[in-house]
Amino acid sequence: MQHPSDARIEQLERENETLRAELNEIKARADNASKARATLMRGGFRLLIPIFDREKVARSFGKLLETLGDFDGPRESWPSRDQILADARVFLESCVRFAVRRRMFLFFVGLLGAAIPAVQVWLVVQQNQIIENQNKFSEIQVYDVVARSMTQGDRNARLMTGALLANADPEFLTGVVRESFDPSLASVYRAEGVNAAARRLDDAAYRGHLVRAAVRSVATIAANESMDKTCDVAQPMLRWILVDAANRVPEVLRLGRDAENLDGDLSEQVDHYLVQVGSALAVYARLARSADRLDEYGRDITPLLSRISQRSAGGTAGRFDSVMRAVLQDFLFEVALQPQLGDPPANLGQAGIAPEVALKQGLSNLQKLVQDKGVQWASLAQQAGAP
């Protein structure tokens, strides 16, 4: 009968043999992996750094010389033909392998050198796309800020937004003015909306700050561009403003006569709108005179003058009639003195002209400029207070 201790020893021996076999297997795997890595690294170095192959070229050449050197000895020790051919073959194979690997190395270096600029160009293109997207998002934010300030802000917020727009990019400002003064925005589709004084006057009040921005931007553009370029950029903005004013100004004057209990702040902002329309008329005249485009200017102001002249100067005075009279007088003074763009404001005292004479001269010059039978000059002169 086997002793229990002997059985325990046999069991431990079997377990030791099993563990030893597993350990040997692990070692064999590690050795194989190490050999594989060494082979891979050696192959990679041979491929990428063919200069190492020069040693084999030198060794094979030395071996060939040693083989040929045996011809100096006795005839019995001369190398055989096969031995010479084998050494020569090894040498030539080493030379060809070195040349091929060197060419491959130079090819990969050249490919890498060409890939780096291509990657850099690709990165620049991606960065430009990111910057373009950021610019688009910035423009959207700017649009949102301008829209909120002009529509939801108080009078001071609108004033500051208009001041910032006056120094904004001309293309951006042109887009804002074009869309804000689009004729379709002035359409009213309900009868009660025609006499909705607060709404119609608020439409005019908000546009006054945009008109001021457009007028002020003319001087900024002229400081950096030629007169023709300035006219090409600013003329469309001023034309859209005057086309809109041809319908809006008579409507404002009509509502000023009929409406009662208007808010004082709103009335003040409407006064500002009328004054800025007069500034647009004066600046456009200076710009057209400096760029020799008075014919286009005469055609652009004709609808506005025609609509204003059709109003009757008699009857009950409206809340905005006094402001409109001052606007017309300042405009006629400008037409009478005919200043160029960049000249100081019209000053009758320095020019030595009486106001009554300046008004008559302005009306005379304006008639020569417009030459339209639809304008009632007598009514226009009466509204301007000309004798």
Distance between the termini: 150 Å
| Secondary structure: helix percent | over 70%
Class of secondary structure makeup: mainly alpha
Main beta sheet, described? none
Residue windows where pLDDT falls under 50 for at least 5 positions: 45-50
Number of strands: 0
Rounded to an integer in angstroms, the radius of gyration calculated over CA atoms is: 47 Å
Order of helices and strands: HHHHHHHHHHHHHH
What does this structure look like?
- The chain has 387 residues and is mostly helical.
- It has 14 helices and no strands.
- The chain has helices at 4-48, 54-69, 81-151, 155-166, 170-180, 191-194, 197-224, 227-258, 264-290, 294-309, 321-337, 348-351, 355-370, 377-384.
- Helix 3 packs across helix 4 (155-166).
- The longest helix is centred in the N-terminal third of the chain and has 71 residues, at 81-151.
- The protein is elongated.
- The chain starts with a helix and ends with a helix.
- 24% of the residues are buried.
- The model is unreliable at 45-50 (pLDDT under 50).
What is the strand and helix layout of this fold?
Layout lengths: L3 H45 L5 H16 L11 H71 L3 H12 L3 H11 L10 H4 L2 H28 L2 H32 L5 H27 L3 H16 L11 H17 L10 H4 L3 H16 L6 H8 L3
